[in-house]
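Table S2 (continued). Query chain:
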Amino acid sequence: MPSFCIATQMWCLGRFLPLLIGHLVPEGDCFWDNILMLLTIMDYVFAPVTTADKADYVAMLVEDFLVDFRELYPERRLIPKMHYMIHLPSWMKWYGLLTSTSVYNFSIFLSSCGPLIRMCCMRYEAKHIYFKHLARVLGNFKNIAKTLANHHQLYMCYLMSQPSQYLRRKPEYTGGTCY
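Corresponding output:
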């Protein structure tokens, strides 16, 4: 088993760790509190709805998290992702305040993309892992873009040719009115 986790595995571990071992951790443990603070930041940043007040609260949480992290782990250096956390509240304010009135003004709509969860690149990273694995297995690096594109197209054709309830599902009529 590899000694590292991919992003989705870390995401799931972070989400379920309090449920799995939270009852075993003594109350007031500063290391555990630091992890819980990070998970709280994640909850606010990836929330489907955000406000300016939440962004200000996240700014306070990020500052407390980074200060506590430096005190708890003095031998560890801050990685660039931790530095980017400082910018999350301003991004939440800039991109996250999509209101119903801004939909009617097209220029405001273009500059306001909604909550940060809509800008998450987790799906792209998952697709990239497929191509990294495929390149490693094939071992052909002369024209890697063409090789990967051909294999991906063949794989998609194979998937679409298989009988699947998800791809070939016929819409069901329930007798109701469609809006």
